[in-house]
Amino acid sequence: MKPLVSIMSPVYNAMPHLHTFLDSVENQTYAPLELILVDDGSSDDSLSVLTERAVIMEKKGISVKIISQNHAGQVAAVNLALPNVHGELLTWCDADDYWTEDSIEKMVECLLAHPDVNMVRSNGLIKDETENPIRYREKENQPFLSNIFDDLFHERILELAGRFMVRTEALFSCYPNRQIPASTVDQNPQLLLPIASRSKCAYLNEELHVYCRRSSGHSSTKRSFTETMKRIEDIKQLYLSILPYCECDQEYYRKEVENMIAAFKKTLMQTTAMMARKRTSIE
């Protein structure tokens, strides 16, 4: 019997891109699938669309569970989804991105062929709002199997939702209570780093995932100096909160967190000073 794959997706005001994501799930060549959707207090028609599409997807054999919460962010949404995961394998995707139709099948095949590996990642694309590819594709010479913990930790590998699949048992052995550390920054480091610290990761050099960069997305938000400094501190607390769940040199990586944060702050100060000089010269 083929393993059930659980898919998690937090949804917040995802119109008009939500249908593209749901289409990519519905059109997957792999079955069985379990789709867990958490509406994060959307003020647009996202919840109505989820409800309508769930009926159609259920008729096609995809199990769909919709959970609603007041707007609390992606990590809170993931923590609502995790207790409802029943699949042997788990992947997750933002509701404004999408997969190729054979993405899940190929990642499943890879993990089944390598039972000693607990995670797999694919290549992919970043596209703009006109669907033009702008970057993301990784180098051709990536090894098939590698320890990626250090590269993930230092963000030398993109930790985008949608390009990873993990064994559920491996994740929940790190988080027995099925809850990841809270953060306003991200959910991907919490889901990936503990597993990566314990297992090699397989790599599929195929463009199976598309990350869509939106002008209205949180990654495109322009922040003030104060807001950016707060976000840097939030990143620091996020990584420090993850380390206890990782099998790594705790002292070394705590120092690395401090080094990364110092570098972020230095870059911010230099950029702020440069912008101030430009404004002065214009005036």
Automatic annotation (TrEMBL):
- The source's domain of life comes to Bacteria
Entry similarity comment: Belongs to the glycosyltransferase 2 family.
Q: Which PANTHER family match?
A: GLYCOSYLTRANSFERASE, UDP-GLCNAC:BETAGAL BETA-1,3-N-ACETYLGLUCOSAMINYLTRANSFERASE-LIKE PROTEIN 1
Q: InterPro entries from the entry?
A: Glyco_trans_2-like, Nucleotide-diphossugar_trans
Q: Pfam families, per this entry?
A: Glycos_transf_2 (PF00535)
Q: Which Gene3D superfamilies match?
A: Spore Coat Polysaccharide Biosynthesis Protein SpsA, Chain A
What name goes with this protein? Glycosyltransferase involved in cell wall biosynthesis
Q: Does the keyword Nucleotidyltransferase apply?
A: no
Keyword field: Transferase
Q: What's a single GO MF annotation on this record?
A: hexosyltransferase activity
Record-annotated Glycosyltransferase 2-like domain positions:
6-155
